[in-house]
Amino acid sequence: MFTIDAHLDLSMNAMEWNRDLRQPVMAIREREEGLTDKPDRAKGTVAFPELRKGNIGLVVATQIARYVAPGNSLPGWHSPEQAWAQTQAQVAWYKAMEAAGEMVMINNAAALEQHLSLWMNGEPNEQKPIGYILSLEGADSLVTPQHLETAYQYGLRAVGPAHYGPGRYANGTDATGRLNEQGKLLLKEMDRLNIILDATHLCDDAFWDAMDIFQGPVWASHNNCRALVNHNRQFSDEQLKVLIERGAVIGGALDAWMMVPNWVRQQSMPETMQCNLEKLIDHLDHICQLAGNTLHIGIGTDLDGAFGKEQCPYDLETIADLQKIPHLLSQRGYAAADIENIMHGNWLRFLRKAWKSL
Q1: How many domains does the chain have?
Q2: Are 59 and 84 in contact (CB under 8 A)?
Q3: Cβ neighbour number for residue 357 with a 10 Å cutoff
Q4: Would the pLDDT of 207 be above 80?
């Protein structure tokens, strides 16, 4: 089934992990054997051949570069200008992949429909470019809110103002605090440009501020449920209900610590924690129960978002295994139309509405 993945850090893997994503996953793993600089070396799950094998023809692909102030122990850049430069290197990689015929940017309604026609024409996927919608995960790299205009011109269509820790515009996971004045200006600029707000990673205070201020389209690209895994990285039922009211789609993520409770990073194992794709269905189903329908869930895996096989469902070897999800949904009693909504239809409906004037 045609599948949309609403969150993949492709350029980070290419530019910081030094992965040639044109190669198959197993070739990338083989080349990384013996490397110890990252915990997920030789355990990656995402590459272009596996995306095509899994019929994942459209993704939301990120730029990401965190600014870290003195005293912040998180990895990142020591000035906003350095972070901006890193995101520009990431854009250059996407453009190089476009030139090589591997990817194509999708940034308006016409491009979306043309790309869908190509991927749904019944021909083999091997030569088809993977469509990508450009998103910025964490806004720290925007030196000023005015830099958003430049980013929009090169194709940026979604922004998550926060990531982990304190941010220049909004605080994120494991941090607290309301939106600052720059964050409020950023949201107003996003409104003006019709850029999608990705609510993922906003801390609770900033989330509620954003819901009050931002008037445009909102989604949560890769977010699970606090009711099932009690951590501030997940959204509470109250937050999920507001997102549903706003017409959002929430993408279920496949990072194991977000899927099952009591996960300890670099210690827990997927098998012993019983972390499988069924746990994703649990989170998706919880949102469906809150909404009373299947119109607000999708897939946003975050696979290879600085973790690999060691921290994802044990029954997923590569991202191509997303094709196991329709069968699991069917076993839970989801109808064929509902399954199509979850695998691609809800994201498409959201984009067509958000981009109707583009």
Answers
A1: 1
A2: no
A3: 7
A4: yes
